[in-house]
Amino acid sequence: MDEVKKLEQARKSLPHVLNDTAPLERDDYFKIGLFIQTYCFADLEARRIINLLEQIQSGKPASYALKLNDKDTIAHLKRHAAECVWNKDISEGLGNAAEILDMHRTIRHMFAHWSGRRIPAHDAYIFFTANFAGQKIPDGTPKFEEHEEANMQYALMPIPNLEQELEKLKGHVQYMTNIGRQLEAKVSDIAEQFREDRNQGKF
After folding, report:
1. pTM to 2 decimals?
2. Please, which of 64, 91, 142, 202 could form a disulfide with 197 given CB 3.0 to 4.6 Å?
3. Interior CA angle at 110 toward 63 and 6, to 5°?
């Protein structure tokens, strides 16, 4: 049975969409909290990397990434990754990391701001929000009904998916941490070499 069908069965098993759900378990809170903090650290590393790449491009220390919102941080990371003509591997690696962050941003938002519950007898979470202002259901989330006067939204997620997505995110965070440290240690030398190469018409 495919994943969407399993989620549909889980949803239909609830006589009442909210009242018949079960609380999250201790391990759920741990994994959800770990996902949120892992994403927060990824955002921190992204901002450090953006400032370092800007310094390499301009030759001057930069701090503008500190003022970006989450969505803009990802956009700027993508742009700077594409401009890393001086190192193709870093360009591709940071581009992939930015795509992973973009994919996980709405999931992190849902974990941080929506109320999570379990669907009894099914391997699925259900997250609720009654605050529609600025809320977005993550892309690809199955919806099985539409109510014209609904007073809440919900999103379903298979429980195994949380651990899978967390491992993906952790891998990219470690990559970004390594790149951030390497760039910070050599940013002045890289910037000087890039300036010389650009003056010689290599880029």
Report:
1. 0.86
2. 202
3. 140
